[in-house]
Sequence to fold (429 residues):
Amino acid sequence: MTEHIIDPSVVEAENARRSTDLRNDYDSLGERLDRRGIAIDAIKAKVAGFNVAVPSWGVGTGGTRFARFPGPGEPRDIFDKIDDCAVISQLTQATNTVSLHIPWDKADANRLKQAASRFGLGFDAMNSNTFADAKGQLQSYKFGSLSHADQGTRQQAIEHNLECIEIGQTLGSKALTVWVGDGSNFPGQVNFADQFGRYLDSMKAIYAGLPDDWRIYTEHKMYEPAFYSTVVQDWGTNYLIAKELGDKAYCLVDLGHHAPNVNIEMIVSRLAQFGKLGGFHLNDSKYGDDDLDAGSIDPYRLFLVFNELVDIEGKDADFHPAHMLDQSHNVTDPIESLMLSAADVQRAYVQALLVDRKGLAAAQSSNDALAATEALRQAYRTDVEPILAMARFDNGGAIDLLSTYRASGYRAKVAAVRPAIEAGSSGIV
Ligand code: LRH
Ligand code: MN
Ligand code: MN
Fold:
């Protein structure tokens, strides 16, 4: 039986205060959607089937390159992180998987599996880390990892990725996400082609160790930590990698890894059209890889990404990209942020499901630009909160995420047993 960290009676009491209003709001939205030819229960069933993974590193207070300001009750280790993820999953009913980062989350794999399964949690993609030196590691990644000029350093990075696959196999994960910080800081520091060639050779060695039922995701990022050039800098390079590697290789799109104003929804469409869109790291950004809460800065862009996904879903029943949050904070309780972000991702999905696709296609083929964009805006303007809340309520989650979490007193409870962490050390990303 699935264990709950938050006493279900707290959730029930909070829900009881809101369930009548929710029923009324849901029925009234149902009536309005019905007039648009949309069955609200069918949409609610889609939300209930939607999952977004929580990154283990997201439940700790993140930092900036300048400082870290830990909050009360910071998780001490991966087992505390799993507890925090279980809380998010219990209340949102939308996040039943956790994505691990190795070596940050290194622990006995069987213990990890046990700890997660108590709460009905599974494991999403494994993330390797060759962008920082681990304790006791022989070769340094200061000048790169999979693309390093030194063969021994590349081999060490390859072996780390193979180890991540091995750990993931015990956990029941089915994917490895590879993001490297390799690049250069000065013109002339590296030969672009040679560096990329070495990266590809290393990735091929990892790919050779990938189980048949696994996928490998490569994640592009325009800059940082390298500030002049980056080996996997954009979706074009990412596509080349996935093509070079083979059928089990896909591109991962982290929304924050693009220049401001880049048309990410079009990148999504391109990669999917050519069968290489694997998944997402969802977050929001204003300037760069800000790792702000998904949907907090530009919710319309998030909607437009999901609009593409729903369009593709409609044409290809086998299209199942991986969704994961990738955000980290200095100023909020990460559990609160992650819960609200999971809901915002669902919101974008539901709004995209409401798009009148026939009307949109008709407007597009008759070059009616305004009617076409209005089809999107009508869906986006719809307040779908009652659908999200009802999907949570039906499954034992919280109608009101924030109030219920705060009423549970979880943060204060864990702060009483988890020692305070001193501020000052720099962050992780
Ligand atoms: C890199 C990144 C990548 C890492 C994570 C910690 O900026 O988005 O996904 O694994 O941050
Ligand atoms: Mn990412
Ligand atoms: Mn990032």
